[in-house]
């Protein structure tokens, strides 16, 4: 996008700047923001039995080691969501935390199949989440939108059925994505349903290159024709892919603490976020499933910068990239970048 302006930020002010700077979150699963306390409260409200005796016991069960063992507990947690108000309460809890982290724009993923498979109507899901988005804009000053994700471990036929169920509520979501277990479920499995969504004018994103190979990122781009790649960190293994992502300015929605928790990198110091930025990619920082992966947006920024030694210039670039990569109009993007520059000017020496 624009050239990085020069700012002289004292090193000791960097953590406060990371927290204060306005930013967009482009990769978070709303069901992954469900904190143990809320799971327990909703289980009680709805009379749902869960296989954990206490909040502490549930929190301890979060010691998963890979994507699949995480997904197992993630689906168990989602089982307490039954009514429109439950979905509202879940989204509202996240949106309040986002506002506290100076997230000014968020594009939230939701997984309708996780709920419709339990007999919850997709209308209940979408209405509750959407009402929280509307209220967030009005009272928190956070612009929020929804992206419907298809679960890739299920069939494309199932995805088509989900799309049909959701289309009467088309005005309440802006795009579609692809999530859940990546390896063994390449993007091309969903070529037809993404083609249909493209005809419908929906924005397209997909998880690719988290645990899966660079080939999955190529097919997300060339077969699904996505506008953003979620994760995409494995792209660094393929120089031609890196060049393509940089040239076409395809945003990567990177999730450092998620990568750490799921052992995509051995430690945060080894994370390749700096490599992606220095190669000119539109990389961003995001929280993925913040309740499960140890932190919301600012925690992701703080821990990653502390571990990798990224600088204030990187911070500006990441925030600017988040606005460039968001599905808002150019005037809104420019307005956010002005606010970003004002924050940096305030922190300059
Ligand atoms: Zn994700």
TrEMBL record:
The record marks 231 as: Important for catalytic activity. Zn(2+) binds at residues 27, 29, 207, 288. Keywords: Hydrolase, Metal-binding, Nucleotide metabolism, Zinc. One of its GO terms (cellular component) is cytosol. Substrate binds at residue 289. Residues 22-341 form the Adenosine deaminase domain. One of its GO terms (biological process) is nucleotide metabolic process. The keyword Nucleus does not apply. GO terms for molecular function: adenine deaminase activity; zinc ion binding. The active site is at residue 210. It comes from the Bacteria. Binds 1 zinc ion per subunit. InterPro entries: A_deaminase_dom, ADE, Ado/ade_deaminase, Metal_Hydrolase. Its cofactor is Zn(2+). Catalyzes the hydrolytic deamination of adenine to hypoxanthine. Plays an important role in the purine salvage pathway and in nitrogen catabolism. Belongs to the metallo-dependent hydrolases superfamily. Adenosine and AMP deaminases family. Adenine deaminase type 2 subfamily. This is Adenine deaminase. It comes from Variovorax guangxiensis. The lineage of its organism: Bacteria, Pseudomonadati, Pseudomonadota, Betaproteobacteria, Burkholderiales.
């Amino acid at each position: 996008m624009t050239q990085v302006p020069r700012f002289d930020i004292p090193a000791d002010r960097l953590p406060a700047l990371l927290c204060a700077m306005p930013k967009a979150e482009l990769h978070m699963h709303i069901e992954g923001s469900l904190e143990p306390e809320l799971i327990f409260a909703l289980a009680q409200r709805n009379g749902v039995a869960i296989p954990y005796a206490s909040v502490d016991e549930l929190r301890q069960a979060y010691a998963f080691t890979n994507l699949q063992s995480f997904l197992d507990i993630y689906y168990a947690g989602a089982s307490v969501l039954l009514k429109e108000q439950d979905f509202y309460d879940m989204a509202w809890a996240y949106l309040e935390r986002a506002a506290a982290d100076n997230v000014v724009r968020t594009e939230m993923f939701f997984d309708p199949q996780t709920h419709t498979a339990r007999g919850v109507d997709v209308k209940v899901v979408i209405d509750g989440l959407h009402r929280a988005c509307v209220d967030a804009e009005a009272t928190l000053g956070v612009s929020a939108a929804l992206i419907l994700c298809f679960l890739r471990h299920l069939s494309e036929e199932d995805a088509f059925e989900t799309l049909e169920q959701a289309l009467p509520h088309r005005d309440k979501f802006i795009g579609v994505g692809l999530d859940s277990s990546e390896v063994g479920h390449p993007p091309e499995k969903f070529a037809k349903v993404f083609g249909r969504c493209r005809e419908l004018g929906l924005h397209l994103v997909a998880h690719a290159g988290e645990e899966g190979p660079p080939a999955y990122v190529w097919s997300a781009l060339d077969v699904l024709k996505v506008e953003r790649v979620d994760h995409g960190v494995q792209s660094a293994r393929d120089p031609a892919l890196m060049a393509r992502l940089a040239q076409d300015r395809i945003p990567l929605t990177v999730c450092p603490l998620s990568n750490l928790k799921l052992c995509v990198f051995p430690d945060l110091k080894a994370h390749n976020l700096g490599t992606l930025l220095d190669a000119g990619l539109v990389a961003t920082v995001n929280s993925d499933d913040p309740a499960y992966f140890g932190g919301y947006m600012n925690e992701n920024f703080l821990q990653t910068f502390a571990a990798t030694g990224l600088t204030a210039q990187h911070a500006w670039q990441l925030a600017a990239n988040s606005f460039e990569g968001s599905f808002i109009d150019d005037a809104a993007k420019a307005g956010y970048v002005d606010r970003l520059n004002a924050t940096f000017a305030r922190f300059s020496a």
